[in-house]
Amino acid sequence: MKHRHHQSSLALIVAASLLGLSLQAMAKDLHVAYAGSMGTVMDLHLGPAFAKAHNVQYQGEGQGAYGLARLIAAHKLRTDVFVSITPGPIEVLIKAGLVKEAFPVASTAMCIAYSPSSPYAKDFKEAAEGKVPWYKILQKPGVVFGRTDPKTDPQGQNIVFTFMLAERYYHQPDLVNKVLGAVENPRQIFTEA
Protein backbone atom coordinates (compact mmCIF):
# COMPACT_ATOMS: atom_id res chain seq x y z
CA MET A 1 0.00 0.00 0.00
CA LYS A 2 1.39 3.37 -0.93
CA HIS A 3 1.37 6.06 1.70
CA ARG A 4 -1.03 8.66 0.34
CA HIS A 5 -2.16 11.97 1.66
CA HIS A 6 -5.72 12.92 0.84
CA GLN A 7 -5.43 16.56 -0.06
CA SER A 8 -8.20 18.93 0.85
CA SER A 9 -8.28 22.63 0.45
CA LEU A 10 -7.53 24.56 3.57
CA ALA A 11 -9.33 27.69 2.61
CA LEU A 12 -8.06 30.01 5.29
CA ILE A 13 -10.71 32.47 4.34
CA VAL A 14 -10.02 35.90 5.67
CA ALA A 15 -13.10 38.01 5.11
CA ALA A 16 -12.12 41.26 6.79
CA SER A 17 -14.64 42.96 4.57
CA LEU A 18 -17.34 40.89 6.27
CA LEU A 19 -18.80 43.99 7.84
CA GLY A 20 -17.24 46.38 5.38
CA LEU A 21 -14.44 47.26 7.79
CA SER A 22 -10.95 48.30 6.84
CA LEU A 23 -8.02 47.91 9.21
CA GLN A 24 -8.00 51.67 9.72
CA ALA A 25 -11.70 51.67 10.66
CA MET A 26 -11.37 48.70 13.01
CA ALA A 27 -11.61 49.31 16.72
CA LYS A 28 -8.81 48.24 19.04
CA ASP A 29 -10.45 44.80 19.29
CA LEU A 30 -10.16 42.37 16.39
CA HIS A 31 -12.87 39.68 16.60
CA VAL A 32 -11.96 36.54 14.65
CA ALA A 33 -14.28 33.54 14.23
CA TYR A 34 -12.49 30.46 12.95
CA ALA A 35 -12.97 26.76 12.27
CA GLY A 36 -12.26 24.85 15.49
CA SER A 37 -9.44 22.90 13.89
CA MET A 38 -7.58 26.20 13.49
CA GLY A 39 -7.52 26.88 17.26
CA THR A 40 -3.82 26.37 17.92
CA VAL A 41 -2.73 28.24 14.81
CA MET A 42 -5.11 31.14 15.41
CA ASP A 43 -4.80 31.55 19.18
CA LEU A 44 -1.10 30.80 19.64
CA HIS A 45 0.42 32.10 16.42
CA LEU A 46 -1.51 34.12 13.82
CA GLY A 47 -3.81 36.00 16.18
CA PRO A 48 -1.12 37.22 18.60
CA ALA A 49 1.31 38.02 15.76
CA PHE A 50 -1.31 40.06 13.90
CA ALA A 51 -2.38 41.83 17.10
CA LYS A 52 1.20 42.80 17.88
CA ALA A 53 1.94 43.97 14.33
CA HIS A 54 -1.23 46.08 14.11
CA ASN A 55 -1.56 47.19 17.74
CA VAL A 56 -4.98 45.61 18.29
CA GLN A 57 -6.44 43.19 20.84
CA TYR A 58 -7.07 39.77 19.29
CA GLN A 59 -10.23 37.93 20.37
CA GLY A 60 -10.71 34.52 18.76
CA GLU A 61 -13.65 32.13 18.79
CA GLY A 62 -13.35 28.65 17.36
CA GLN A 63 -16.26 26.31 16.58
CA GLY A 64 -17.60 24.29 13.68
CA ALA A 65 -17.30 26.57 10.65
CA TYR A 66 -20.80 25.90 9.32
CA GLY A 67 -22.27 26.73 12.71
CA LEU A 68 -20.25 29.95 12.88
CA ALA A 69 -21.20 30.90 9.31
CA ARG A 70 -24.88 30.43 10.09
CA LEU A 71 -24.59 32.56 13.25
CA ILE A 72 -22.81 35.29 11.28
CA ALA A 73 -25.37 35.14 8.45
CA ALA A 74 -28.21 35.43 10.99
CA HIS A 75 -26.44 38.44 12.58
CA LYS A 76 -26.18 36.53 15.88
CA LEU A 77 -22.39 36.72 15.88
CA ARG A 78 -20.40 39.84 15.07
CA THR A 79 -16.93 39.24 13.73
CA ASP A 80 -14.33 41.18 11.80
CA VAL A 81 -12.71 38.13 10.24
CA PHE A 82 -13.95 34.61 9.48
CA VAL A 83 -11.53 31.74 8.83
CA SER A 84 -12.81 28.49 7.33
CA ILE A 85 -10.95 25.38 6.20
CA THR A 86 -13.33 24.76 3.29
CA PRO A 87 -15.34 26.97 0.95
CA GLY A 88 -18.77 25.64 2.05
CA PRO A 89 -19.23 27.95 5.05
CA ILE A 90 -18.12 30.88 2.90
CA GLU A 91 -20.97 30.07 0.49
CA VAL A 92 -23.36 30.59 3.42
CA LEU A 93 -21.95 34.10 3.86
CA ILE A 94 -21.97 34.83 0.13
CA LYS A 95 -25.66 33.83 -0.07
CA ALA A 96 -26.36 36.09 2.91
CA GLY A 97 -24.72 38.96 1.02
CA LEU A 98 -21.98 39.43 3.61
CA VAL A 99 -19.00 38.34 1.51
CA LYS A 100 -18.29 38.82 -2.19
CA GLU A 101 -15.24 36.59 -2.50
CA ALA A 102 -12.70 34.67 -0.50
CA PHE A 103 -9.27 33.28 -1.23
CA PRO A 104 -7.67 29.94 -0.30
CA VAL A 105 -4.23 30.53 1.13
CA ALA A 106 -3.03 27.07 2.19
CA SER A 107 -3.70 23.34 1.90
CA THR A 108 -3.48 20.33 4.16
CA ALA A 109 -3.72 16.54 4.10
CA MET A 110 -6.16 14.26 5.90
CA CYS A 111 -4.41 12.06 8.41
CA ILE A 112 -5.16 9.65 11.24
CA ALA A 113 -3.88 10.69 14.65
CA TYR A 114 -3.48 8.13 17.41
CA SER A 115 -2.16 7.99 20.93
CA PRO A 116 1.30 6.45 21.32
CA SER A 117 -0.05 4.78 24.47
CA SER A 118 -2.94 3.17 22.56
CA PRO A 119 -3.00 -0.62 22.58
CA TYR A 120 -3.14 -0.24 18.77
CA ALA A 121 -0.13 2.11 18.46
CA LYS A 122 2.04 -0.66 16.97
CA ASP A 123 -0.67 -1.43 14.40
CA PHE A 124 -1.01 2.24 13.40
CA LYS A 125 2.78 2.54 13.10
CA GLU A 126 2.80 -0.46 10.75
CA ALA A 127 0.01 1.16 8.72
CA ALA A 128 2.02 4.40 8.51
CA GLU A 129 4.97 2.35 7.22
CA GLY A 130 2.74 0.80 4.54
CA LYS A 131 2.95 -2.70 6.03
CA VAL A 132 -0.78 -3.04 6.61
CA PRO A 133 -3.77 -1.10 5.22
CA TRP A 134 -4.80 1.72 7.57
CA TYR A 135 -8.49 0.97 7.09
CA LYS A 136 -7.96 -2.57 8.44
CA ILE A 137 -6.69 -1.13 11.74
CA LEU A 138 -9.76 1.10 12.04
CA GLN A 139 -12.00 -1.98 11.68
CA LYS A 140 -10.39 -3.87 14.58
CA PRO A 141 -12.68 -4.54 17.55
CA GLY A 142 -11.99 -2.06 20.33
CA VAL A 143 -10.57 0.72 18.15
CA VAL A 144 -12.37 3.98 18.93
CA PHE A 145 -12.50 6.35 15.98
CA GLY A 146 -13.32 9.98 16.72
CA ARG A 147 -14.35 12.70 14.29
CA THR A 148 -16.14 16.02 14.26
CA ASP A 149 -19.80 16.60 13.38
CA PRO A 150 -20.32 16.70 9.59
CA LYS A 151 -23.42 18.88 10.11
CA THR A 152 -21.46 21.74 11.66
CA ASP A 153 -17.81 21.16 10.79
CA PRO A 154 -16.29 20.93 7.30
CA GLN A 155 -13.54 18.71 8.72
CA GLY A 156 -16.26 16.26 9.77
CA GLN A 157 -17.62 16.36 6.21
CA ASN A 158 -14.12 15.82 4.82
CA ILE A 159 -13.69 12.70 6.93
CA VAL A 160 -16.88 11.20 5.50
CA PHE A 161 -15.83 12.23 1.99
CA THR A 162 -12.34 10.76 2.49
CA PHE A 163 -13.83 7.42 3.51
CA MET A 164 -16.15 7.46 0.50
CA LEU A 165 -13.16 8.02 -1.77
CA ALA A 166 -11.10 5.37 0.06
CA GLU A 167 -13.93 2.87 -0.38
CA ARG A 168 -13.64 3.27 -4.15
CA TYR A 169 -9.87 3.74 -4.38
CA TYR A 170 -9.00 0.66 -2.29
CA HIS A 171 -11.93 -1.40 -3.65
CA GLN A 172 -13.33 -1.89 -0.15
CA PRO A 173 -17.12 -2.18 -0.46
CA ASP A 174 -19.01 -0.83 2.55
CA LEU A 175 -15.87 0.72 4.11
CA VAL A 176 -17.82 3.83 5.13
CA ASN A 177 -20.35 1.76 7.06
CA LYS A 178 -17.73 -0.60 8.52
CA VAL A 179 -15.64 2.21 10.01
CA LEU A 180 -17.95 5.19 10.40
CA GLY A 181 -21.33 3.54 10.72
CA ALA A 182 -23.99 6.17 10.12
CA VAL A 183 -22.79 9.54 8.85
CA GLU A 184 -24.26 11.03 12.02
CA ASN A 185 -22.83 8.57 14.53
CA PRO A 186 -22.91 10.07 18.06
CA ARG A 187 -20.43 7.44 19.35
CA GLN A 188 -17.75 8.89 17.06
CA ILE A 189 -18.57 12.60 17.05
CA PHE A 190 -16.55 14.81 19.37
CA THR A 191 -15.89 18.54 19.52
CA GLU A 192 -12.34 19.71 19.03
CA ALA A 193 -10.48 20.89 22.09
UniProtKB/TrEMBL annotation:
Keywords: Signal. Coiled coil: none annotated. Pfam families: SBP_bac_11 (PF13531). GO terms for biological process: molybdate ion transport. Transmembrane segments: none annotated. Residues 1-27 form the signal peptide. PANTHER family: MOLYBDATE-BINDING PERIPLASMIC PROTEIN, MOLYBDATE_TUNGSTATE-BINDING PROTEIN WTPA. Belongs to the bacterial solute-binding protein 1 family. WtpA subfamily. This is Solute-binding protein.
